[in-house]
Design goal:
The complex is a heterodimer of chains A (180) and B (244).
Chain A lengths: L1 H6 L16 H7 L4 E4 L1 H4 L3 H6 L6 E6 L5 H4 L4 E4 L4 H10 L5 H8 L6 H11 L4 H8 L3 H15 L4 H10 L11
Parallel strand pairs in A: 1-2, 2-3
Helix pairs in contact in A: 8-10, 8-11, 9-10
Chain B lengths: L8 H7 L4 H6 L11 H8 L3 H12 L14 H33 L2 H45 L4 H9 L2 H4 L4 H17 L7 H42 L2
Helix pairs in contact in B: 4-10, 5-6, 5-10, 6-9, 6-10, 9-10
The chains are: A mainly alpha (180), B mainly alpha (244).
């Protein structure tokens, strides 16, 4: 589920909490989420107290399966089946007013790499570390990391050798540029 | 659907054909007529509970085999996992490689280079998978087997205690994700970025093989995480208690 959420365009997964954590509602409220996804089983007996303690503006989504009794699932504004696919998740989120992950995708993911991203991609495939790239381009390491995440998201390629193949195919680098 | 011992294996296979390589790892060969799982297991001298635990875990990601954990030895589990490894290394990987080479041979000269990149990438993946598997077979599995032997024969535990101080099975749980990433990338390279060719048949074949391998590896990892790891954790716990 976590991995699926991370793959959704326009969604930022801020934190994952363990149901048995102490002072759970305080911690959840502190990260000011738009939406939280709750596994009612993980909270068991403390579910009601927890739900009551939350700010009304937070959208509550329950993680359910076919055995979840209606008394539990009715406590949530929206529910997601535990076995849901990426598309099913998108469908559910698109039903929620104010939350629009799919739309963000059209802005972000479908765009080709920017000139800056292409430069950074080139340096990554030539084997430079984030630190080295940052120094070379006068950027902070944090900015380089963000660019890297966006490159991976846009291209759908996670590993450095995968990015290298992409860069070679698109003539961003040449075979001779690579050290043997 | 929960797979039970009185079901006909033929029906189960119709329901989930991904189980074909799995039953093969138990030495069950096609042509089993209307036999039920129980009958086949008896014939092949397979522990039925063990068989059911494996096929159900493999078949249903939500299945949690808690109550059967203690009913079969670690050695049969490791025997099964080893056969799965053999299947990846001796059948799946060479088959995918063969297809990529076929793709290179079919491409015209201007594009051969591009498909060779895919082959190089796949070979990198192959060596990562091989070293992952070797580490399991050379360190994780022997560790689990030795622990079982110590507990069975109630021999001296000092050796294993020493090993436990340096290593716990819990460390190993975290190591699975990395191998998956390259497979994910390779799928996208083929779907999105490699040049189009007139005849897609070979590329389709490669993709189907990759999706299939990916699913099998994921289910395999789940069997290790859900069955092997808890079993070894329980043994680690018992040994620690004996020595208190």
């Amino acid at each position: 589920m976590e991995d699926l959420l991370k793959e959704l365009p326009g969604v930022r997964l801020s934190e994952v909490f363990d149901g048995s954590e102490k002072r759970l509602s305080e911690k959840v409220s502190a990260s000011k989420p738009d939406l939280i996804i709750i596994d009612p089983q993980a909270l068991a007996g403390t579910l009601n107290t927890f739900l009551h303690s939350l700010n009304n503006k937070i959208i509550l989504v329950g993680l359910v399966d076919e055995h979840t009794p209606p008394t539990i699932s009715s406590k949530f504004s929206y529910t997601i089946n535990i076995r849901e696919s990426k598309f099913g998740l998108l469908d559910t989120f698109n039903k929620i007013p104010g939350i629009n992950p799919g739309k963000a995708a059209e802005h972000d993911e479908n765009k080709p790499l920017s000139a800056r991203e292409t430069t950074i991609l080139k340096h990554i495939t030539l084997g430079l570390t984030n630190q080295e790239i940052a120094e070379k381009l006068f950027l902070s390491v944090h900015t380089v990391t963000t660019h890297r995440k966006n490159i991976t998201k846009k291209l759908g390629i996670k590993t450095v050798s995968g990015l290298t193949v992409y860069a070679l195919l698109n003539k961003i680098i040449k075979m001779d540029d690579l050290q043997p | 659907m929960r797979i039970e011992k009185d079901m006909k294996l033929a029906d189960v296979i119709h329901h989930d054909y991904h189980l074909i390589p799995v039953i093969n790892r138990f030495n069950i060969h096609l042509g089993f007529g209307d036999s039920t799982i129980e009958q086949l297991c008896r014939k092949q001298e397979i522990n039925t509970e063990f068989f059911l635990t494996i096929v159900n875990t493999y078949h249903d990601p939500q299945y949690f085999p808690k109550k059967h954990l203690q009913s079969f030895p670690v050695s049969s589990l490791i025997g099964y996992l080893g056969k799965a490894h053999q299947y990846y290394l001796e059948q799946k990987i060479p088959e995918i490689k063969r297809l990529i080479i076929e793709l290179i041979e079919a491409a015209d000269d201007t594009q051969k280079k591009n498909f060779e990149l895919a082959l190089g990438f796949f070979e990198e993946y192959q060596s990562e998978l091989v070293s992952h598997i070797e580490r399991e077979e050379n360190s994780v599995y022997p560790y689990a087997l030795e622990m079982e032997k110590v507990l069975e024969k109630e021999t001296d535990t000092s050796d294993i205690i020493l090993k436990m101080e340096n290593y716990s099975i819990t460390d190993y749980e975290k190591e699975h994700d990395n191998v998956e990433e390259k497979l994910f990338d390779l799928k996208n390279l083929i779907i999105k970025y490699l040049p189009s060719v007139e005849n897609d048949t070979i590329s389709y074949g490669i993709l189907l093989e990759l999706f299939d391998l990916e699913k099998d590896l994921r289910d395999h990892a789940r069997i290790e995480d859900m069955i092997l790891v808890p079993k070894v954790e329980a043994m680690e716990f018992t040994i620690k208690k004996m020595n208190r």
